[in-house]
Write a sequence for this structure.
């Protein structure tokens, strides 16, 4: 219950890491969530599943490099300050 | 002492030619102070110092350069800050006046008689909250948040559970829940692909309106005990639920469904569920954030 802003940052980093480690061909394609399986029809707007797959793919592409930096900073800070 | 001979000495203190005069002796003792001489003494050195500061070309140049540098720096800070936090857009949300705040607070507690919930536009831009009661603002949520923290401190103080750290904990806790709620709403709006003109700041404003009900509930709990707390909280939860549904229906649902006509189709049904979910989350948060304050 007693949340702090720091725990929110921790949660955000952990969730983004979790999305970033999902492997494209070993896991996502196997369960039908691959990048090419999201595009359903072109006429109507995409459904929820297509939006979700789009979101996962964009998070993995965009956040890869910033996550490396943020994770390294976190590791150094945790080593220094416990 | 001789005032008439003192006056010319004080005024011409700056010029070096006077040092040859024998009456220079008076200068040293004049600072010892007679009242009238003292007054004149105070003004003259300051005037003398100010005059040299302004008349010296080097310091003139330095002052001009310093002020131009300061204005340049201020411009750069403003431009960069505007990129992250849209200051001009924020100003729209704080353009409120007393009549608007009063009417809006009344609407938050009793939304059942209000007829027209549409936001009026003026040439494609929404009208400022001062002129339209349906427009969202950030003044009430900001003030409500701060008042909620103060009332939480008051409630904890009456139960002898108060310490200054608790105020900070309450504040960051409520802020974190607000951020989580806004992020969850943004995520669900993205997943359902709603073409709406709801900005993030609008969502923050709508999420912040529940603090008014929470404050009223906690104050009633302090005055009338647990029964009063539960009754007022129930009333405020119901009114926030109705308020959110009536406001969000116009923004999220399509035009036909907003007018009350039952439109079938998976898309509108999903959007209706989303509106209900957002509105139902408000009472849950209201209870979650206040039940530990009233014992």
């Amino acid at each position: 219950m007693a949340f702090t802003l720091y725990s929110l940052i921790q949660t955000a980093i952990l969730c983004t890491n979790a999305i970033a480690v999902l492997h494209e061909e070993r896991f996502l394609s196997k369960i039908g969530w691959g990048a090419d399986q999201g595009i359903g029809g072109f006429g109507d707007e995409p459904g929820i599943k297509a939006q979700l797959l789009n979101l996962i793919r964009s998070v993995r592409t965009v956040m890869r490099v910033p996550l490396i930096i943020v994770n390294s900073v976190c590791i150094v800070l945790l080593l220094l300050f416990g | 002492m001789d005032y008439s001979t003192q006056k010319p000495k004080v005024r011409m203190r700056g010029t070096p030619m006077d040092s040859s005069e024998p009456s220079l002796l008076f200068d040293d003792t004049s600072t010892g102070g007679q009242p009238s001489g003292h007054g004149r003494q105070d003004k003259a050195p300051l005037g003398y110092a100010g005059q040299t500061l302004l008349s010296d070309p080097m310091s003139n140049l330095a002052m001009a350069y310093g002020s131009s540098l300061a204005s340049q720096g201020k411009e750069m800070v403003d431009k960069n800050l505007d990129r992250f936090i849209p200051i001009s857009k924020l100003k729209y949300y704080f353009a409120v006046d007393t009549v608007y705040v009063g009417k809006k607070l009344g609407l938050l507690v009793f939304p059942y008689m209000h007829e027209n919930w549409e936001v009026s536009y003026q040439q494609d831009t929404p009208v400022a909250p001062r002129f339209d009661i349906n427009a969202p603002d950030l003044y009430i949520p900001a003030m409500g948040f701060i008042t909620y923290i103060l009332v939480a401190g008051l409630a904890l103080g009456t139960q002898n559970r108060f310490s200054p750290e608790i105020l900070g904990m309450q504040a960051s806790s409520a802020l974190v829940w607000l951020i989580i709620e806004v992020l969850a709403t943004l995520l669900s709006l993205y997943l359902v692909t709603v073409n709406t003109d709801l900005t993030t700041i609008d969502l923050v404003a709508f999420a912040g309106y529940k603090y008014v009900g929470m404050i009223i509930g906690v104050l009633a709990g302090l005055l009338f005990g647990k029964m009063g707390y539960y009754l007022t909280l129930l009333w405020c939860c119901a009114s926030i639920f109705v308020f959110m549904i009536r406001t969000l229906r116009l923004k999220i649902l399509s035009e036909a469904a907003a007018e009350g006509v039952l439109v079938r189709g998976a898309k509108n049904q999903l959007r209706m569920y989303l509106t209900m979910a957002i509105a139902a989350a408000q009472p849950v948060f209201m209870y979650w954030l206040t039940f530990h304050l009233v014992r």
